[in-house]
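Q: For a teaching handout, I want to show students what a protein-ligand complex looks like in token form. Below are the inputs, and the small molecule is glutamic acid. Please produce the holo structure.
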Amino acid sequence: MIVTRFAPSPTGYLHIGGLRTAIFSYFWAKKNNGKFLLRIEDTDRSRHNEDAVGGILKAFEWVGIKSDEEIVYQSERTEIYKKYIDQLLETGRAYKCYMSKEELDQLREEQTARKERPKYDGRYRNFTGVPPIGIEPVIRIKSPESGNIIVKDLVKGDVVFSVEDNLDDFIIARADGMPTYNFVVAVDDAVMGVTDVIRGDDHLSNTPKQIVVYEALNFKLPNFYHVPMIHNSEGKKLSKRDGATDVLQYREYGYLPDALLNFLLRLGWSYGDKELFSREEMINLFDPSGINKSASIFSIEKLNWINGEKIKNLSRDEIANLLNINSSQIIDLVKDRCSTLKDLEREFLKIENRPENYDEASLKKHYRDDNKKLLNIFYKKIKDIDHDFISLADSFAKVLEDEKVGMAKLAQPLRIAIVGIAQSPSVVDLISILGRDEVISRIEIFFEKVK
Ligand code: GLU
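A: Here is the structure, written as tokens, with glutamic acid included.
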């Protein structure tokens, strides 16, 4: 069974980069009828932000994904970590180190002076003497002393870390007993049965340390997939300056969760040249071995396009529901031209609400004497005739025919009268949807306000 996880440190809101690795993990688990787990990495209390967990869960709820099991909080797992630390001490795979802070500082200084990489020199690795008094030891794990650690990454291929340059007997528990980051991540992933670790490649350099922990505890290694970062158009890591990075902001802006997921899924992964994926396709087609090796570029234009396409696929009722507006034909009239729900709402209201004022420039251009005359003729026609027999659209056509004028001459002033501006969807569609009474009222108000 495939078990994946998303393991955020709750230091803030859910970042879109985080959501991307979360959905990679989620889709991969779902595709394989496996499990997707959520683990909150909250051991570092000083960086812990209570609201952040709520923020992550809210974002998950919005996009429609959730953990298949109860959420795991690292802060509640001290006993588990302690058990494995004791086991490592018992099996001689870890040891107590009594180096004082002064000694450590001194060692670092000497190494720096020799232009060496500062690292622990293993002085307590085989210590059997009497421990110094007054020093609470840290626990260090025995790392290999030479050779390489190879991360068999399924995105990047084999990544070789030389022990010499990358590892030492690193601390797995501090003097106060608090276990350290790489230790708990490895223990948790193993104990939670995670088979596939999909995460940002900013964690790749942690992986050799985690492998040391796995091996010391005889845990089976998971598959690792390190996903390249998301960059902005200048090739730098995406930051707040490039736009919103908080997932929930995208809801505020009027993006559909399916559009955001589709966009993030495609950001760094592809399936031929397919761009649009339904939720089922996201699950059925995603495969982490198809994740790109290089960074992907964030493009809001692409997201807007995807969102526009997803909006087109929504029914009138679905849109009305999402926006809490009347389910009217106006929605159909505007929805194909909008890239966000916010645009759609704005366009909808422009038509649904009677105009409060009329665009001056448009009036100047499109409300001259001949236009006035035509609008009057049209108004009289629709007021007088029986509309069970002749539609507004036909009346419109009839006026053009009788008066022998082109469409724009009447369409433009009519638009201004009913929506306030000269740009709108087809005026014939507009009047048909608004209906005779409303069109008459709007023209009357217009005549009253604009002489
Ligand atoms: N807690 C880490 C983070 O938020 C992720 C750790 C992992 O995925 O292994 O960046």
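A: Two things your students might notice: Residues 7-9, 41, 185, 199, 203 surround glutamic acid (CB under 6 Å). The mean pLDDT is 94.
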